[in-house]
Amino acid sequence: MFFKQPKKTPPTRPTPRALEIPEILDRIFFYIQDDYILSHSIILVCRQWLGMNQHRLHREVSWVGNSNNKSISDKNSIDKLLARLPRATQLAWSSTDETLKEKHTQRLVQALRENNDFYLQRLQFNAADSIMVDNNDISSSKSNTRIGRWKDGLLKSNNKAPLSKGVLRELDLSGPVALFLRILPYLTSLTSLQLHLPCQETVQVHTVLNACPHLLSLHLDAPLVIYLPGSWKPSTLSVLGVEPINQNGVLPLQSLVLENASFAQTSLEELLVLTPRLVNLQLRNVRPETTAADINSYSWSRLFRQLKELSLPIHSIHFSIYGQAASEEEQQEKILMVCPQSSEWAFRCFDLTLSVRDCLSQLCNTVTTLELVASEGQASNDYGLALHRYLCASPHLLHLKAANSVCLIERMDIHNRWTPIARRANGTVLQDLQPGIWACRKLQTLHIRVHSFGSTAVQTLPIRSRILYGYISCVLPKLQDLHLFELENDPGLSINLFGGLCLLASLHHLESFRLGTGKTLQKARPGDVRWMIPSGQSRIGRMERMEVVATWGNLLAAERAGEKNRQETLPEYTPLGDRPCTESDLVEGLTMLGLLASVKVLVDQMNSKEGCKAPARNSPRALQVPAILNRIFDHIQDDDTETLHQSVILVCRQWYYLNKSRIRRELIWVDDSKNNSSKSFDKLITRLPQASKLQWHSNDPQLKTKYTLKLLQALEGNRDRYQQSCNPAASPVASSKRSKTPLKNDGLLRHLELTYSGLLFLKALPLLQSLTKLRLQVIGSDTVRTACPNLLSLQLESTTGIIQLPSPWVTLSSSTVLLPLQSLILENVIFSQPELESLLKSIPDIKVLQLRNLRENANSTTSLYSWHGLVAQLHALQISLRSVHFSIYGQTMEDEREKVLIVAPRSNEWAFRSFDLTPTVSYYLREIPNFVTTLELIAPGRPDPGHGLELHQFLCSSPHLLHLKATQSVCLIERMDIHRRWSPSTRAGINVDRTAGIWACRNLKTLHIRVHNLGSPAIQDSPVRSRILYGYISRVLSKLQDLYLYEQNNEPGLSLDLFGGMCFLARLQHLESFRLGTGKNDQMVRPGDISWMLASGRTTLSKSERGECVLTWQQLLIADNAQEAKRVASLNGRDYVAELYGSSSVKSHIDPQLIASLSQLGLLLDVKALADQMNSKQGYICWPKLKFLTVYQPLTSTFTLVKGYTRVGKVAASDLDSRINDDLGAMMR
Fold this sequence. Notes:
alpha/beta; 17% strand; F-box domain-containing protein
């Protein structure tokens, strides 16, 4: 007779993934500030991502307004601007309209007003509206406009949904203050404001901050002076219908730049208190107030003290007073004390002195951004000499903005091809014009003002422009932003082919180019500039350039003659500072600097069929450099084996060899005279150099066995490899080439678990310098000292005695040295608490602190330990723990609530003794902000009268639990028998609640438990007992990855054969580690009973073996059916499962499908159904992710592993089969 199978319910729609939910995507996109990533990557993924990020794309529009904007083309331009403004994020506006009467100005003001109204409406809409997401559609609670729908678990965007408008975030305004005040009410959405006033004006800073509550960057400047009177503190009330960022008045401002501003320093100091996120503070050429009393109203020392008190995260700072040079002490304070980590600096030209350069060289970070601001009030007579020398010695510079300084073209003429006449400046001969090659080869931004000396006739020579363009294009090939201009010379830089402007075409990374050519307009033919645009590559464009080059014949001949004469009469170039240039490409590129022949070579290349294309990038990318890859791989956590094994080492051969030393390889050695063999030990020694973890269970207290001595000798080799790795010169570097010869890359032992007695640890201690994780299990009592400087985790415990931890833990010489320790677990130890408190000062990164069953001194009447003293020390050191435990042997801790809610309120990892896990503690665990995901029950120190009752009830009401380690507690099998099919009689004198329940932690990944039952010894060998345990775990906890089951007292223990239902565990498809302790006595098993674990168990022979086992169950199935019918009849219609499912405390966590799958729990029929599935044509794949398997017998309270199997990555199935088959043979003997 067969029971009726439950009907299969239709599958539910899959839960959407995180990146398929628009709200989560929008939150992620909010943090992306890189415009390049947005425009070149994100919006190209799909239409949904495009629609969600259109308003974030950087769109810049610009308008230059003046009294001449009256033509039809200007009207068309303003129409285009107004059409693009609703989607723009940046507006650059230059205006001279002081009366605001120009028509274009009025139209633009009106457009800003409409744009701001739309922004305010959207703010109100977002505040009142909420987006609802479910598996059917995405809709608004007020609006019925559907932006997408769910189909097959994926969000399909609505193609007809309107595209969102952009928001104006940045404004760069050059114009009168009247225009700014007119549009200020319409700038609510701004995050960046740059205001350039043309003359002396007054601006109220608090008005600006009130009108722009989201402002992150504020820049104010004027050529004369800009007055900033009164208090700058903004209002905390609602302004313009927008609530302030913070009711306390805290501002999001991150950058403040003031140039030629006059204000009271107290106003600035008030504002700094409200800007805790300020990273850039630039006070350039501040102007003293006009009153005589305030002529020295600015004090750097006072500002410096406030910056130190507020601890602002300043990354860039500048402070200068108009007409006053900064002292060397002041400059050193800015560089070395205010922001020593900065790589961005701004100076006035004359402030960039040799002493400042020396201070910059002392910084931890190299200078990558340098800005030279205007030098009003102080003359500079070196014409950029200090800047030129700095550029010749700064290879790390990436951004240079020196539009207010001077760069002489003479210093770029390294071959002296430009007529070397005596240059004069203001009647004085300028001597130091030695040219040099800038070292900043990777410069990306260059803003400079060029200049040259000499007569007017010399200024008009085209070689002057060719030297400038050729020098920049050859020395700075990575430029992305280039701004060149000159004011004094006439006609200025040449813009035709003859002047070499086309040499800049070799800047293939250039994104922005601005050129100021001089006072007089130049005439240029189409052929001179058409090379800049795509039509310049057409046949017409090439013919135009060829006609121009054809007229250069005589000029090229004269140039060759002049070059020959120059080489005979002038000395060769000597590098500045005697640093020769070793880059062959650069030397070759500068050989023809300034010559017309270099222009002809480039034009001929443009006119060729290939054209002027960007050269291939031969330099390796960052992820192709082994040193950079190694640095990245170092940040992968040691316990994250899945990332290394399943992803990293499978990428390519190079990644595999770079991570061979990081792969987790576990070895196990148990000193057992009966089962040890020389063959297995030789394998251990061979694999030890590649291992990262060793479990060593020693029974040799006197260190006399040959295996112990040889293993200690092998650890000496590990120590020698570690000392060699600490010497970079001697350490080998992994090759990046694809070689067929394997690379030798031995690992280092990082993790040791040692169970020992006697002198073994003291002998091995000097050999363990490479360890990052150490666990010692002492059999008996011992005195322990450690000498492992790299330890991240330390666990000391004794199973039967006490561990002495003598003083001192931290010596005086090492008290100031910080240790990397992150986890400290001590169990059954005795020590002095002041030693622990001293150690805490040296381990600021400690996250796990567990003091388990601390032992008192038997000869002392006072306690050695104080929980409140430890709490005070943790608070004083501001240590934030992730997991904490404190208990004294034999004492019940009454302040568990304090541990939970005070010491680590954000923790989700907790450890208790079983009798300390009371209903009150369980209640507080549910009240903390984070759900408990990891729970460990340690050795209690006294019997648990409830036999794990509180743990069982906690599991039935904790759906968020992911990891449970309770090997020191008890889980009764009776509480898993939800149908009461196994009803053992109660032992005499034991009265315990054995009510069954279904655990709510369906996503549990780790389960370490000690199983037990309270029935009479006569029924311990009932196979129903094992079938209930295996079936319950496989159905309720289907996502287990690490399973550890053992039973100590019962005989013969948990069944290993098919009849006992161990094959139910094959349902755990995510299982990676499985350990099973079977009881005191050996069991006789046939190959057919456990061959289902192996790949060979799916062969025809194995299927026939299982089939023979199942055929012998016919009478047992009939008896089992009769017993089940008898049980059902005795219930008189009562359904225990229905009563359990109806309970309000667990109803929300129990799935009806789970109830249906447990309907045959404990029945032999359930085993037969799974065996039939294994024997079918489709078969059943068991444990596809298994890496570790152990079956052992717990002979004593210290559980000894008898057999262990490990594999890393994808080990051949035959290898795993052979190891398990060896074990089968041993078990069958």
